[in-house]
Design brief:
single chain, 650 residues, alpha/beta, nine-stranded mixed β-sheet, 21 helices, disordered N terminus
């Protein structure tokens, strides 16, 4: 009954359904990539991203060789535990005044007191204030964050703030060199010591004008994500930890003489090194088990490293100045890594090869980032590497899901028995074989082997149904492997027989397919002989077999509907093989008769040790032209029949 819907409307409806199906498949294929994108977004907004980059930075910094602090004119007078035991705590101003006088007399070009003295200690507090007011070599610290002032009376041009910038994990990696636009007093301690001791005021002038070249840190520099990069900040280039000239307060006051060349012309820092005073900081080298053995670095030594880094900055082309790429460059690198991950995850036919290439590229990315960092160029690695691996992994997941679907299609469409080798080839070439979940119809040159069991009806009358099926399966258990192990495919079982194809859906070449079919027929002949010996011992009926083999073209492809599809082979070659199998059934002198047409015989290589019986040209049902037919009698001896067959064949 007609529903009244026009044919064009029905076609449009089915077309729309097909498009929707493809659209659904396309959207499902994007799910792994969407998940990978969400993972990247979560990582970008998570502190884990920056933590991973900083861990790599700390590791390479601890492994990279650093110059000794003794190559710089910097000396540290560390107030250690023995000084506290001798002079008490807090240190009296009079003791500090005496130490400053001796250092000034020894020729120190600048003396920075890294001790808070906004309030005096002891009965003679005026001495320290007087010296800081009048001695042009003295620099007093103050702290902006804690609102601690300098030694009272210290001129503005000899004050320096000692505030240090720590990362969120509490590690000191950066140096705040300067904050432009402040008053004369607001200058970092390291920069002030450089100005007082070396007279180098040009650096601050360039900083104020914004003409001092970087690299200065930005919010997304190197491995940082959202850094508070206020002012002029740089990654601190450390010298060897604990390598600066170091003496204590008792040495200055005469316990043991300090070599004159370690005071004269040097910038001297006086500060606490005693662990009990807790003026200690973690640095990259102390974060790694491969780094220095000491756990924390005294603040006064931190200032020495800062000062040494500024001295290096004054040297043109300082190779130890850590460089970072602009934020936009790192974003581009992340996009490139993501695209590369997608390409390499999808590009290779074999998943194993894709995994190997992705692993190699990921190793190169890590090695390249490590090499750059070792050479003072810091590139954020966490996001590009994760993006690369995540997108490649998403491709693998998508391909796995697609492969599973295609595997199911192949199993559904090609349920016939094939050898493992053929199955692997089918799987590897699935993209070229399958189209919209079907095997496309193709005309293929094949060799067909058709078999049937002799006297099956009479045997079935002697055996029960269960015994009959077991009897038949014992034969099939031998015949099927003989075919599949030689690259053939059992296309279907025809009750008590089978149809096998050599060359579809994959071919090894017409000659190779023909030889494989003959080899399979010989193997079946031998299997029939051995099987019947067992059946005779068990008192069961003998099993006879007729086989027809013919080579020619067939139409191969998926046939059926959406409810049931199968891989079918149809054509004259199939019909001829069937006619050969059933030809003149009374003319059978052995348990397994094999008739082969000349079309197959002509494809066989010369010199095969086979025994043939020429049946001549015979007409077969459904064919106008006769077939030249040969009976394969076995492969036990070499015979000249094959050569004579070639000479006399059509």
């Amino acid at each position: 009954m007609d529903s009244g819907t026009p044919p064009d409307s029905k076609a449009a409806t089915w077309l729309a359904r097909l498009k929707a199906l493809h659209l659904g498949d396309g959207l499902r294929s994007l799910v792994p990539y969407a998940a990978a994108g969400l993972l990247l977004l979560a990582l970008q907004r998570s502190p884990v991203n920056e933590t991973l980059n900083l861990l790599l930075y700390d590791l390479i910094t601890s492994l990279r060789p650093a110059p000794p602090g003794t190559d710089k004119p910097i000396t540290i007078i560390g107030i250690d535990e023995s000084d506290l035991a001798t002079y008490g705590f807090p240190i009296d101003d009079r003791v500090l005044c005496e130490a400053i006088d001796r250092l000034s007399a020894g020729g120190a070009v600048a003396i920075g007191l890294d001790i808070y003295r906004d309030q005096g200690v002891g009965p003679d507090q005026a001495c320290l204030r007087e010296r800081f007011r009048t001695n042009p070599r003295l620099v007093s610290i103050f702290n902006v964050a804690e609102a601690i002032g300098p030694v009272p009376g210290t001129p503005a041009d000899r004050q320096g703030f000692n505030d240090l910038v720590l990362d969120t994990d509490g590690v000191l990696r950066r140096d705040l060199v300067h904050v432009a636009g402040q008053d004369e007093a607001t200058v970092s301690l390291a920069l002030r010591l450089l100005e007082v001791g070396k007279g180098q005021r040009s650096l601050r002038q360039r900083l104020e004008k914004g003409s001092e070249p970087g690299p200065w840190l930005e919010p997304a520099s190197g491995g940082y994500d959202q850094l508070d990069a206020a002012g002029y900040q740089q990654m601190l280039s450390f010298h060897q930890l604990g390598s600066f000239h170091l003496w204590n307060l008792q040495d200055v006051l005469g316990r043991r003489p300090i070599p004159a060349d370690q005071i004269r012309g040097h910038i001297v820092l006086i500060g606490s090194t005693a662990p009990s005073l807790r003026d200690l900081f973690p640095v990259p080298q102390t974060r790694s088990t491969l780094g220095a053995s000491q756990l924390l670095v005294p603040g006064v030594e931190i200032h020495a490293h800062r000062l040494a880094a500024l001295m290096d900055r004054s040297v043109a082309g300082d190779p130890r100045r850590l460089r970072t790429l602009p934020g936009w460059v790192e974003r581009v690198a992340e996009v490139v890594a993501v695209v590369l991950g997608i390409v390499l995850g999808e590009a290779f036919l074999l998943l194993r090869r894709s995994v190997l290439v992705v692993g190699l590229v990921a190793s190169l990315m890590v090695g390249g980032a490590v090499l750059l960092l070792y050479n003072f160029v810091w590139v954020g690695l966490s996001l590009p590497l994760t993006g690369f691996i995540a997108m490649a992994g998403a491709g693998w997941v998508r391909r796995g899901a697609s492969s599973q679907k295609q595997r199911q299609q192949i199993e559904r469409l090609l349920g016939q028995t094939t050898s493992p080798a053929v199955a692997r080839q089918l799987w590897n070439q699935r993209d070229g074989l399958l189209s919209d979940g079907r095997f496309e119809g193709r005309q293929l040159p094949v060799t067909v082997l058709m078999s049937d069991t002799c006297s099956f009806t009479s045997v079935s009358e002697r055996l029960s149904p269960g015994e009959l099926l077991d009897w038949l399966n014992r034969g099939m258990a031998l015949f099927v492997p003989a075919i599949t192990r030689r690259g053939g495919m059992v296309n279907k079982f025809t009750g008590d027989g089978l149809l096998a194809v050599f060359g579809a859906p994959l071919s090894s070449g017409e000659e190779a397919d023909a030889k494989a079919a003959i080899d399979a027929a010989l193997a079946i002949q031998r299997a029939v002989d051995s099987l019947n010996e067992e059946l005779q011992k068990e008192g069961l009926p003998a099993m006879g077999l007729r086989i027809g083999v013919h080579s020619g073209a067939v139409l191969a492809g998926s046939m059926g509907s959406s409810e049931r599809l199968e891989y079918a082979v149809i054509g004259d070659a199939v019909n001829c093989a069937a006619r050969l199998e059933s030809l003149d059934k009374q003319r059978q002198t052995n348990l397994c008769r094999v008739l082969v047409s000349s079309s197959t015989l002509d494809l066989l290589p010369k010199g095969l040790p086979l025994e043939w019986l020429d049946w001549g040209e015979l007409n077969v049902k459904g064919r106008t032209e006769p077939l030249r037919i040969w009976e394969l009698r076995g492969g036990l001896r070499r015979d000249s029949a094959l050569e004579s067959a070639r000479a006399t064949g059509p």
